[in-house]
Design goal:
mainly alpha, 3-stranded mixed beta sheet, 54% helix, disordered N terminus
Length: 196
């Protein structure tokens, strides 16, 4: 069973792994405008991977859908509708995953425990993961002011929307939170491109 010491270790590892992964993807794509950084998991926390997306990757995804998917299914893909469709993000299902090997060993070991032990340990582990990611925000890894306002930190995956929203509220400045919770996925694209 996990102990408080393990949870502290998990927090430290999530902080270090997220910082390394996000630093690597930013360095590898200096010409792109990132708008989302997150951790991909599920409601049992049986895996954890860093993910991200950029305005440029979003535009390319929408272009591809308009060409290949929309004609087949009679739909209209937009930037607003696909902005939070993490499965189509440019940096998904993981980035720099070598940094998350030990983390995934920890969460998988917990998932494999008998149900009572799993249930007792998973909530503190969620908190450790959240706190580890939150440390990046506290040290202004994603910038400050206008620069920070362009970026949303979140958790993505097969998760209840209210759970995702609670993490957005914990991890982001109020203006970013308001933009996320009031996002209109049905908004049409402007003539020049995306909804901002």
């Amino acid at each position: 069973m996990s102990t408080p010491r393990t949870h502290l270790s998990l927090e430290e590892r999530v902080y270090a792994a997220s910082k390394a992964a996000f630093s690597a993807v930013i360095k590898a794509h200096p010409d792109q405008n990132f708008y989302a950084f997150g951790l991909f998991t599920d409601d049992s926390l049986q895996f954890l991977h860093a993910v991200a997306n950029t305005e440029e990757a979003l535009t390319e995804t929408v272009r591809r859908y308009k060409k290949e998917v929309d004609p087949q299914f009679g739909c209209t893909s937009t930037h607003a509708g696909m902005r939070w469709a993490y499965g189509d993000w440019g940096f998904f299902p993981e980035i720099a995953d070598e940094h998350f090997i030990e983390i995934n060993d920890i969460v998988r070991a917990n998932f494999d425990l008998p149900s009572e032990q799993f249930a007792a340990a998973v909530e503190p582990m969620w908190l450790a993961v959240l706190t580890g990611l939150k440390r990046l925000e506290q040290e202004h890894f994603f910038g400050e002011g206008h620069t920070r306002s362009k970026i949303t930190l979140l958790v993505v995956g097969d998760l209840p929307p209210e759970f995702v929203e609670s993490w957005v509220r914990e991890l982001n400045p109020s203006d970013v939170v308001e933009r996320y919770v009031s996002w209109d996925a049905d908004a049409p694209d402007s003539p020049g491109g995306s909804q901002q």
